[in-house]
Give the backbone structure.
Amino acid sequence: MEIDIITEIDTIHQKANSAFERKDIGIYMSQFDDGIHYTNADATVYDRKDLVYQTEKYFKKTKEISTTYYRIKSSFENEFFTEKIARKSIVFEKGLVFAKKKTVQTEEVFNWKKINGNWKVTAVQVVLEEKY
């Protein structure tokens, strides 16, 4: 059963990553439940409204984004699928003349729950973030 869940979750990640790279806020946000609690590495907590605002702001200041991830570990317990992933994003931020390249590496813990037949992210905690 967990393999089927992983396949479903991977499909959602691929769709969300593609939307993130295209800066498509609607499709990107569709993976998150309305009650999402998103905790940044600096312990700032965002609800869905704040997360939409922060993501749109981020998209506006970027020219190009590319992102990859791999799963470090996962478990399924009490209707929740929990996974820890490592993500690497290459971001080109808009500048006056040139775009500035930035690499962002994170480790994130995702909590997923099947809601109305669809897997949704109910919580994210960014446990590590490095930028260079």
About this structure: The radius of gyration is 15 Å.
